[in-house]
Amino acid sequence: MQTYILGIESSCDDTSAAVIMDDVILSNVTAGQDVHKNFGGVVPELASRAHQQNIIPVIETAIQKANIGKNQLSAIAFTRGPGLLGSLLVGISFAKAFSLGLNIPLIEVDHLQAHILSHFIRNNDRSNPIPRFPFLCLTVSGGHTQFVMIRDHFDMEVIGQTIDDAAGETFDKAAKIMGIPYPGGPLIDKFAQSGDPKRFIFSKPRIPGLDFSFSGLKTSFLYFLRDELKKDPEFIEKNKNDLCASIQATIVDMLMLKLKMAMDQTRLAGKASAWPDVAIAGGVSANSGLRRALENARDTLGWNIFIPPMQYSTDNAAMIAIAGYFKFLKGDFASQSAIPYARQQVTK
Ligand code: KG4
Ligand code: ZN
C-alpha cells in the first residue's frame, strides 16, 4: 500500500505545502511573501500574518495538484523548528487541526534535517541518484552554515559551523549595504553573472578547523564601500556587477576552502580510499557560483556531488514531506502538544 504524506513548511517567509507518495513527489506549492522586500529582512509579525493568509489556499492547491483526495492522506508532517515562532505556530496549528479532523498521525520535522533529506526525493521513475551513507553535507541557508556528517536519515552530526553570521545572511547584508532589496542573495547572484569576480578583493577571516566566520567580511565590505562612496557617490551604481561578482566569489571561496578540509578529514577518519559523497543544501545552494565551484571539484578532484534541484534549494515543503515519510516508516509520530522551537536542537 502506498503512503501519502502532506508536508507543511512555515518556518520563515515561505508558506509551502507538498504531497509525496512514498518517496516520489506529487506536488510542491510555495507562496512567497513580498511584504519584507523594503525592510532589508523578514519582519516576524508580517510573516505570521502572511502565513495565516496563505496557508489554506496553498494546502488546497497542493492536494489538488497531487490529484488525490484528502482522505487518502496517511499522515501530516510539519516543520517544528528552527525558525520564527509566530510563523511556525501557523503551520503547526493547521497541521494539528487537520490531523485531528482526518484522524491521521502527526509528524514533526526539523527544518535543517529536511534540507539535507531533500536529496532523497525521487523523480517519477526514481531514476535520480541519491547519496550513500555516510556522506557530508554543507548546509548553507539564511540562518545556518554548517557541515553535517549524515550516517543515516536521522543520524546526523554537526562537525563545523559558523560562529557568527550565516552565508545567506552575509549575501543579504551585503545586498542591503548596496541598496538591493531583501532577499539579496538571488539578486547578487543575478548581477554577478555580468561582473568581474576578481575586480575587488575583500579580506577573508581565517579561523581554525571546520568553523566559519563571516562577520568580518561584512564589515570590510561596509568600510570599503563607505570609503569609495566618499570619493564617488555613484560608486555602487557604477560598479554593481563587479561588486556582486567579487563578494559572491569571496563567500564561495570561503565555503569551498573549508569544504575541501572537511572532505579530507572525513576521508581520513573513515579510512576510505575514495572521497565520501558530498551534498549541498539550503537556500545558498541555489547560488550559481557555489554550484559551479562544486561541479569543478567533481571534475578536478573526482568528488561524487549532489546539488539539489532549484525548487528544493530554498525553503519548500517537499523536503518536509520526504522527512515525514522516513519518520512514518519508523512510526515516529508527534503528539498534539508539540510546540515549536526557535533554535536548532542538538542533532544526533
Ligand atoms: O534555506 P532558505 O530558503 O531559508 C532559510 O532556512 O534560511 O535560505 C534563504 C537564504 C537567503 O539568505 C537568501 O538570500 C539565500 O538563501 N539565497 C541565495 C540564493 N538564493 C537564495 N544566496 C545566494 N545566491 C542565491 N542564488
Ligand atoms: Zn531553510
How would you describe what is shown here?
- The protein is α/β, with parallel strands linked by helices.
- Helix content is 43%, strand content 17%.
- The chain is built from nine helices and ten strands.
- The protein has helices at 44-66, 85-102, 111-117, 167-177, 184-192, 215-231, 235-270, 288-301, 318-330, and strands spanning 4-9, 15-21, 24-31, 75-81, 106-110, 135-140, 145-152, 155-161, 278-281, 305-306.
- The strands form two sheets. The protein has a five-stranded mixed beta sheet with strand order 3-2-1-4-5, with helices on both faces. It has a five-stranded mixed beta sheet with strand order 8-7-6-9-10, with helices on both faces.
- Helix 8 links the parallel strand 9 (278-281) and strand 10 (305-306).
- Helix 4 crosses helix 5.
- The longest helix is centred in the last third of the chain and has 36 residues, at 235-270.
- The two termini are 31 Å apart.
- The structure holds 5'-O-[(R)-(carboxyoxy)(hydroxy)phosphoryl]adenosine and zinc ion.
- The site of zinc ion has 6 residues, from helix 3.
CATH architecture of the largest domain: 2-Layer Sandwich
CATH class categorisation of the largest domain: Alpha Beta
Structural class: alpha/beta
How many domains? The number is 2
- Spatial strand arrangement across the major sheet: 3-2-1-4-5
The helix content is: 40-55%
- State the total count of DSSP E strands: 10
Low-confidence runs of at least 5 consecutive residues: none
Number of helices, counting only DSSP H or I runs of 4 residues or more: 9
Relative strand content: 15-25%
CATH superfamily of the largest domain: ATPase, nucleotide binding domain
Overall mean pLDDT score? 95
The biggest beta sheet reads:
5 strands, mixed
